[in-house]
């Protein structure tokens, strides 16, 4: 094989692999990306039943109802709109009323969000960043005051 | 700048308490002072040797070695001071107050040092300085100029991060008055596996800085040869080993601590550590080509730069707060911007230097597509492409949000769909690599030698197909791939010792005289096979059940029968927990008792879920206790059976051991190699 041919094989293989990779990425992007919405956005836009998305907001106080078996009903609110959610399974440790939550699942035709995954992460002060930002935009964010109020004054040497 | 503030002592503190307080204060202040001194030393170590190498001044270049050792010593003093403050619960140090508490067990007081942003950055530079000092001490036969340049580049990274620590993330900030008790450490971090996960991960990340520094030094020198690869390889291998183990530990921790029964979530933070691993694995293999065949030089340099850049990006992603997760300690945007700036300078600078100087480097030898080099190029191609796919999936949401404001999440389906198809061809090709000759290989001969391995893999596929009741049809093929890797690794050893061609004693003699690196390769490849089998089996055949159970009720999963006996409270050292008791039987015989629990950490006002796990050669029986339900004393309980899941971490351990065996090879010993066309006899300058 000549030098030229060898180089050709190398470049050809590289291009082929890259082409396949780009194709895979584009294909996967179409199907496996999940958008994040707040209850207000969900009510204002038409979301096809069965389309997966993430719903973020606060668990409405007093809305958690443990029903038959392990199915749980609660409502997610962004303080302007509220969406009912059902979930079957074990809720994460830090799932609390009034705390931030992100649920992933689909909307059914009757307007109930069926979550198959609920995230409420590792810290009682944790607010999913998406939720915090949306709440800030809507002017109902109170989280920052809490963080700085309770601490003794730090002193730099 | 370092204004010393004496805290006001008040109340009727006895003389002894006062003295104790003074000595503690000394410790924290000494640490702070040492850290600032280390920054000064790093700047000296960065500037003088670089200038010395330029003007060929031996004395200036000679500064590098002692400076590197001094810098390590100073950072070690700072680190020990911080650790002392944590162990003695000196709450006058803000970092201790925020992340520790009197009641916290000792192990977590120690691991709490790096369980927070500031402390973990000190650990980062400590490891960086350790590598620099190691080059200074062991690199005695490195060419003078190369050594000076390497240590200067290493020092520039250290200087940037020390400046970052001192200005934005100072762990020695003091509080006055000192609080009586701290705020405690995030409960999910109070775990033995996680105590050691960051040091290993950082050793991996930071270890790649050696390859980076050598690459930059080579670019500055404008000279690179096979000996360069021999110097770089041990460092890269050591970093790769630690990163492998660090990632495995993180995955193991997530498996039993987060209570989801999964081992990998394609979380951005996980990806941040996985990308350097992929690039580092590629670097390891391309360095072999460079060392043995003097080819792929420019590519290897670029790969070294990319690998460390990905490590820096991992640090940025995790430390900047761009990603909110358990790892994101930082909330201060100044920190994120600072790390972003460091990243920009080093990555941008390195790539610019590469673009400028790389064309000067001599091109290496040629080889046929079907050859050992050819397979290693294929390895590099597929690994870097897979790495790029992970990169796109990890950063696309960030980029999209920055550009359009749309918030999306890219989850496991994306990565499974893009990563797996790129990695499977690589796995198929792995056993061929070591069986092909350098320069020009015989694919047919290699295929014949691999016949036994292929038959074994095929038999495994048929066997699994016959016995499986459910699960995707691809799963048996996955198991076959794992067997193929393991059998391929064995095949290579068999042919190298000529097991069936010579007498047993001759084969035994050959087996003993085989270089350790051959064993290392075989072990690492077999380890990968074990990981593949574990991943495929767990993903395809895991059983899951979510149940509402009342005391006395039973449930069955994967042949086990579990009887729920009830829930009892228990007091731990710094938490309260509710422990469920589940009796497990199998075919009427008692197997074990599972005690999943929910812990409530009073001080931290936060809880953790402790899974009850029964490990077994068939797989893990895994139980998680949920909330109490409204209807009469029932609890929600989640049960999993994860077949062969332990193989994932066992395989990673085998890969680590493979790396260690290879590292112990004489020829790879740090500092052993000498430059090929050495200028051993310094000819007087007669040009």
Would you write up a description of this structure?
- The complex is a heterodimer of chains A (157) and B (687).
- Chain A is of the alpha+beta class.
- Chain A folds into 2 domains: 32 residues; 108 residues, Nucleic acid-binding proteins (OB fold (Dihydrolipoamide Acetyltransferase, E2P), Beta Barrel), CATH 2.40.50.140.
- A 5-stranded mixed beta barrel of chain A has the order 2-4-5-7-6.
- In chain A, a hairpin with a 5-residue loop joins strand 6 and strand 7.
- Chain A is elongated and about 75 Å long.
- The C terminus of chain A is likely disordered.
- By secondary structure, chain B is of the alpha+beta class.
- Among the domains of chain B are: 171 residues, no CATH class; 183 residues; 104 residues, Tick-borne Encephalitis virus Glycoprotein, domain 1.
- Chain B starts with 14 loop residues before the first helix and ends in a 24-residue tail after the last helix.
- Chain B has 21 helices and 12 strands.
- In chain B, 61% of the residues lie in helices and 11% in strands.
- In chain B, helix 11 runs antiparallel to helix 12.
- Chain B is globular, with a radius of gyration of 28 Å.
- Classes of the chains: A alpha+beta (157), B alpha+beta (687).
